[in-house]
Structures are given as C-alpha cells and as structure tokens.
Amino acid sequence: MLYDYLTTDALLGKFFEPFMFEKLPATGQNSNQVYLNEILDFRSFENFGSLFTSNGSVQIMLFKDRLEICNPGSLPYGLTAAKLRVSHHSIPANPLLAEPMYLAGYIERMGTGTGDIISLCKKTGLKEPEFIQEDIFKVIIWKKAVIDGTTEYDTEYDTIYDTDHVEDLVKKMVDVMSGEMSRQELQELLGIKNAPHFMNGYLTPALKIGVIEMTLQDKIKSKNQKYRLTSKGVSLQKRVKQ
User: Fold this and answer.
1) CA 108 distance to own-chain centroid
2) Under a CB-based contact definition with an 8 Å cutoff, are residues 90 and 80 in contact?
C-alpha cells in the first residue's frame, strides 16, 4: 500500500486521518510489495497501539527519508525498546481488546510482531526499523534513498530529523532551560533517556545555531560541563513562552 512511498518520493509531507491508508491505491502484487502492504497496513499500526498504556491516538507521519509511527504511551512493564528486537513475551496492555483483535487476525499473540516487522523490512531491502521509547513510543521505518540511480541510506544519525522537526526539538529544550544545566539535568527535564538521541536531536543542533553555549568551552568533554542560553537563546525562549 505504501510501496510507492518507500521506493519513490511519492506521498511526502502527508498526514493521514484514521483509515486513510485504505483509500490509497495498491501498486502491484509482487512479493516485496505484499510484504510492505502487510507491515504498513494502517489498521495494524492503529491496533499496534493496544500494546501500549495510552489514551492517545496513533500518528503516522511521512518524511523524505522515513515513515514514523508515534504512540503517546509507554511500553508495558518488563518490555523495553531493545527487547522488541529479540524474542519476547506478548504483554498486551488491554487483554480484553487484544483478544478479539487476535481472533480477527489483526495482531498475533506470541510476541513476534516486532520481529516480523524487522524481518519483512530486510526482505524488502530496507534498513532495519528503529523502536524508540522516550516521552512517546516511536517506530521509524526507513525508505530507500535513490541518488543517481543508486540506492543508498543516510548513515548520519542527525539525518533522522528534518529541519522543521529539529527546530521544534531545540525550542522544546530552550523552553525548559534555566541558568547553567548539565546534559543529564536537561535530559531528565525533557524525559529523554537515550543520550545519543538527545545529543543529536537537541543539544548539538542548539549549539550549532548558537542558542546555547558550553560553560567550559576549553574542556568540551569535562564531566562538569554545563550549558546555558546565549543572548540569542534568551530571545528565542521569550518567543517560545509567549
């Protein structure tokens, strides 16, 4: 169903309401397209939210290099993003909802769903998907980037986010800053546990555009390193808080 999106630049910048994917035309029925139709069927990801503890709705966003499925909830106790990549038990947050969905064929109950997604992405020639648990749970499925007829993947982590999204993350961090703060303090305030994600999505972009600065600029890797707003950052914070 989204084969065109993952192999071309079709459908970029779209936001889909529930069941909108069902209205999109299929593109043929070779094995790779069938795999993609299975793993990207909207109802599967909408129901995928039943795994989580959340009253929010699932969001599906299409970017130039990736598809993101976001759920504003958290994994059940005992499950982590890392465990989703290996064999694990099925722990539905809502067993009463999960049972009829299983009987209807929308989900499985052996804890193999995320492993199947990884396997199907590989079979289709896509990079392995990412599972990220922070203040929300996010699944990232990468698409192929075709450059001069050659299929390549972006390898730099900071290409995960487009420019607008990076700016939003920087604004979010600037909004909570007060005085001099360590990386750990900022991560805690923002509810982010993944240090590389924080560095690449928040801290490094903020340093690059000059809205924050290091307190120990001659000792970049010091354990006592902290960060503070620059005059440019103070102005940005005022605008964000308005």
Assistant:
1) 23
2) no
What's the distance, CA 174 to chain centroid?
21
Q: Taking the model in full, what pTM does it have?
A: 0.46
Q: Any residues with CB less than 8 A from the CB of 115 and at least 6 apart, and which?
A: 85, 86, 87
Range of the domain at 110: 3-155
Please state, in angstroms and rounded to a whole number, the distance separating the CA atoms of residues 48 and 42. Answer: 9
**Alpha helices, DSSP H only, in the chain?**
3-7, 31-40, 42-48, 95-103, 113-123, 163-176, 183-190, 195-198, 204-208, 231-241
Paired sense of beta strands 137-142 and 59-62, if any: unpaired
CATH number at residue 229: 1.10.10.10
Per-residue pLDDT tens over the stretch 48-83:
444 444 555 667 777 777 788 777 767 777 778 788
Q: Distance between CA atoms of 39 and 191, rounded to whole angstroms?
A: 29
